[in-house]
Amino acid sequence: MATFVISKRFSGDYKFEFTSRKGKTIFTSNAYELRMDCEAAVEHIRSVLETCSYVKFKTTKGKFFFRVVVENEVVATSRKYSTELMVQKGILEITKYGSKAEILDFSNNNFLFED
């Protein structure tokens, strides 16, 4: 099952990623200063994924990616893909499984490694 994963950036801001059923990141959100804003954005995006826009781009190095646009605002950017067909498959995964995706919050986990 696809998931929305909430985590913290090194800067202290919060973000969420939409991951596929196979565990690959499909897109990453913009930064949010507060965790509750990030959680609210996940809920909102999850409810409108079927109706939002996906704008496709091609980098100068020939890679493809897309941006998720909700109400004329860019809310997330996808990972880079090698072909345009893979971009379309990523978008299809979002529209098919996004509204049913579970939300995992890893923003409070502090991972400690002993020396």
Low-confidence stretches: none
Q: What is the CATH-assigned architecture?
A: Roll
Query: Any idea of the CATH topology?
Result: PH-domain like
Question: Whole-Å distance between the termini?
Answer: 36 Å
> How many structural units, i.e. domains?
1
Q: Kindly report the average pLDDT value.
A: 89
Q: So what's the overall shape?
A: globular
Element order: H for helix, E for strand: EEEHEEEHE
Write down how many β-strands occur, each being a DSSP E stretch of 2 or more residues.
7
- Biggest sheet: strand arrangement: 4-5-6-3-2-1-7
Largest sheet: 7 strands, mixed
* The CATH C-level class name: Mainly Beta
Going by helix content, strand content and strand pairing, the class is alpha+beta
The percent range for strand residues is 25-35%
Q: What is the gyration radius calculated from CA atoms?
A: 14 Å
Protein name: DUF1508 domain-containing protein
InterPro entries: DUF1508, YegP-like_sf
Pfam families: DUF1508 (PF07411)
Organism: Flavobacterium frigoris
